[in-house]
TrEMBL record:
GO terms for molecular function: DNA replication origin binding. Residues 241-282 form the Origin recognition complex subunit 2 winged-helix domain. Component of the origin recognition complex (ORC). This is Origin recognition complex subunit 2. The lineage of its organism: Eukaryota, Metazoa, Ecdysozoa, Nematoda, Chromadorea. It comes from the Eukaryota. Its main location: nucleus. Component of the origin recognition complex (ORC) that binds origins of replication. DNA-binding is ATP-dependent. ORC is required to assemble the pre-replication complex necessary to initiate DNA replication. Residues 38-162 form the Origin recognition complex subunit 2 RecA-like domain. Keywords: DNA replication, Nucleus. It is found in: Nucleus. One of its GO terms (biological process) is DNA replication.
C-alpha cells in the first residue's frame, strides 16, 4: 500500500488523494466473502471524497451504504435498519436489544447467495461517541462475521474499533495510513504547540454574523465561551473536554451529545475544525483569522475575555 502522502495542487485542481491505492483496495473489496475485507483509513484530513470515489468506482458492482459517523443520528439502530432495508431482509424488530437484532440479520445473511456482498462506508468513525459505543461495535462485528458484509471506515487516529476490544480483534481490520493534509501535523508530534495561522479559512465579519444570528440563545453563549477559550489559549487548539466542562458549569449544556449538536453549525461553516491529538483526545482548531474574530466580537459587543469573579 502507498505510504502517507501530502496535499498536492496540480493545474489549480486540488488532488488531495494523489497516489491513493484505489485499485489495490478494489481488488480486496471484490475478492468476495472468502476473506475479511474491513479497512480503516486513518490520518490527518477529510476523506469523504475518497469514500465517495471508492463507492463510485471500486464498489460499483455491489450495494453499499454511506454513513456519517459524526452525525448525532448515527448509531447501532440506524446501521442495522439500513442493512435490513438494503438487503431486503424483511425483519421487523422494535425492541431495544440491538445485539439480538444483529444476530437476526446475520442469520438471514447466511441464507443469501454465496457471492452476495454489501459495503458499509463510515466516514469519521473515530467520532468520540462511536469509540465508546460498545453496542455499535458489537453489532458491526456480528453482521461482518459472515464476511458478506464489510466496512470501510475513515478517521484521524486508528481508534475504531476501540483498541483492546473484542471488535478490534474479531473484525481483523486492515489499517491504512493516508493523510490528505500532512502539513497539519506537528514535527515533534505535540499537538499542544499547534498554531494554525497558516491554515485559516477565509471568513468575513459579515459571513460570521449571518451564522451567529441564526443560532439559538444558548448556542450563541457557547460560541462566545469557545472564542474566549481560544483567546485564553493564545488562539491555539482547545480540548473538547475543557469546553464541555465550562459550558456545563454555566448551564449551557447537560451532556456531550447536546454540545456536539450545538457545535454542528460551527463545524459546517468551518468556524472551527475538530481533530484528535496523539492521545486520542478531541480538540477544536480555530479557523477564523484572529483579526476577523476580534472585529466580529467587538461589533457584537461580545467580551473576548471571560469576566473574572469579583
Amino acid at each position: 500500500m502507498a505510504p502517507e502522502r501530502q496535499f498536492h495542487e496540480t493545474d489549480e485542481v486540488l488532488c488531495y488523494d494523489k497516489n491513493f491505492p484505489y485499485a489495490e483496495l478494489g481488488v480486496i473489496f471484490n475478492t468476495g466473502s472468502c476473506i475479511y475485507r474491513n479497512v480503516v483509513i486513518y490520518g490527518i484530513g477529510d476523506k469523504k471524497e475518497i469514500l465517495e470515489n471508492l463507492q463510485r468506482d471500486q464498489l460499483s458492482g455491489m450495494p453499499s451504504i454511506y454513513f456519517e459517523g459524526n452525525s448525532i443520528r448515527f448509531g447501532a439502530r440506524q446501521l442495522l435498519d439500513a442493512v435490513n432495508e438494503e438487503c431486503d431482509l424483511g425483519i421487523t424488530y422494535t425492541k431495544n436489544d440491538l445485539t439480538k437484532y444483529a444476530e437476526m440479520i446475520k442469520e438471514e445473511l447466511e441464507n443469501t447467495e454465496k457471492n452476495f456482498s454489501l459495503a458499509l462506508l463510515i466516514n469519521n468513525c473515530d467520532y468520540e461517541e462511536l469509540i465508546y459505543d460498545t453496542t455499535l461495535q458489537e453489532c458491526l462485528t456480528t453482521i461482518c462475521s459472515t464476511k458478506k458484509i464489510f466496512f470501510i471506515g475513515t478517521c484521524t487516529h486508528p481508534l475504531f474499533p476501540s483498541p483492546g476490544s473484542n471488535a478490534r480483534e474479531e473484525l481483523r481490520c486492515y489499517f491504512l495510513k493516508f493523510s490528505t493534509f500532512k502539513y497539519l501535523e506537528c514535527e515533534d508530534g505535540d499537538d499542544d504547540d499547534m498554531d494554525v495561522d497558516g491554515d485559516e479559512v477565509t471568513h468575513k465579519t459579515q459571513s460570521i454574523k449571518v451564522v451567529y444570528d441564526s443560532l439559538t440563545p444558548n448556542t450563541k453563549k457557547l460560541f462566545t465561551l469557545m472564542m474566549q477559550l481560544f483567546v485564553k489559549n493564545n488562539f491555539k487548539s482547545i480540548f473538547s473536554d475543557d469546553l464541555f466542562s465550562q459550558a456545563r458549569d454555566e448551564f449551557l449544556v447537560n451532556s456531550v451529545t447536546v454540545m456536539q449538536e450545538m457545535m454542528t453549525e460551527f463545524l459546517d461553516h468551518e468556524i472551527v475544525n475538530r481533530h484528535h491529538d496523539s492521545a486520542g483526545k478531541v480538540k477544536f482548531i480555530l479557523k477564523i483569522k484572529k483579526n476577523v474574530l476580534i472585529d466580529f466580537m467587538e461589533s457584537e459587543g461580545l467580551e473576548l475575555e471571560e469576566e473574572e469573579d469579583s
